[in-house]
Amino acid sequence: MITQVQSVIAAQVDSKAIAKSEFEQYVEEKANVLKSIGAEKFSLLSLADVTKTILHHAFWLADQKQKLSIKQYRKLLVDRGWRGEEKRYLKIAAVFGQFSPQDLAQLEPLTVYQLANNSNKYKPVIDALLDLSTITQEAVRSLVKEKRTPKEPKPEKPSIWRRTKNGGRYCQIPAIHEEDERTGVTLQNMIDSEGLSAQQIVAEAIALRQAYKEGRLALVNKEKA
Question: Among 10, 22, 30, 202, which one has the highest count of C-beta atoms within 10 angstroms of its own C-beta?
């Protein structure tokens, strides 16, 4: 007897899970409406209906997940061929739970997905929608632009390397600007007096600095010496 009662209860629950939902009734009603309207109004009306249908579906699916057991919910997804597709709609339901499908009817479907899939990024935009009397696509575009955080330009890493035509490379020291021109004057004096090239003198200077950093050279105080 207990087994029979359990079977009857299970059958009742499953029949409720697979019965025609309010969402499906909504889709059928809108399909009938679309058949009756003229072609010139079809584009605008169908776009709004697509957005509302997406939201109706998302809210209904989230409601079913709350009401049904895990097993029943999984069966619902499998029976309707929604397995693997449900997450994006649950995101929509979670993000837009404070709105009705009619509130967002003027948004493009892609915008609904975009805001829901990047809810952390667009949270200021979604919060701002609550203050609007009418939510339009243009209003959302304006909010996205207004709330966008300007990206800080990444500082370019200075590089002395330059490429030759044959694929090799060489180093080129950038111009040195000094009010007293001390570096340039000193370098020119060394070139004139020692007969060395600027490259040779710079190479020696860099080698001496590297040796000092490695502890192979030490500064000597002339007074103490």
Answer: 30
Instruction: With residue 205 as reference, give the H or E element that holds it.
Output: helix 198-213
Q: Return d(Cα 140, Cα 47) in angstroms, integer.
A: 16
- Selection from 22, 45, 59 nearest residue 105 by Cα: 45
- Domain borders along the chain are 2-147, 161-213
CA distance 193 to 185: 12
Higher pLDDT among residues 43 and 216, named by residue: 216
Q: Name the maximum alpha-carbon separation found in the chain.
A: 114
Q: Could you tell me how many helices (H) and strands (E) the chain has, helices first?
A: 10, 2
Contact status, residue 118 vs residue 112, Cβ threshold 8 Å: no
Check if the beta carbon of residue 14 is closer than 8 Å to that of residue 75. yes
- Residue-level length of the chain: 225
Q: What backbone phi and psi angles, to 5 degrees, belong to 60?
A: -65, -40
In angstroms, the Cα distances linking 85 to 89, 100, 117 are 8, 22, 13
Beta-bridge partners for 161: 171
Q: pLDDT for 120-152, tens place per residue?
A: 999 999 999 999 889 999 999 999 988 876 677
CA–CA separation, 76 vs 177, rounded Å?
A: 74
Residue 222, token pair as written in the block: 């002339």
Full-model pTM: 0.50
What 170-173 contacts at long range (C-beta under 8 Å, 24+ apart), as own/partner pairs, is 173/202
Cα(177)–Cα(171) distance, integer angstroms? 19
Across-strand partners of 162?
170
Whether 2 shows a pLDDT value over 50: the answer reads no
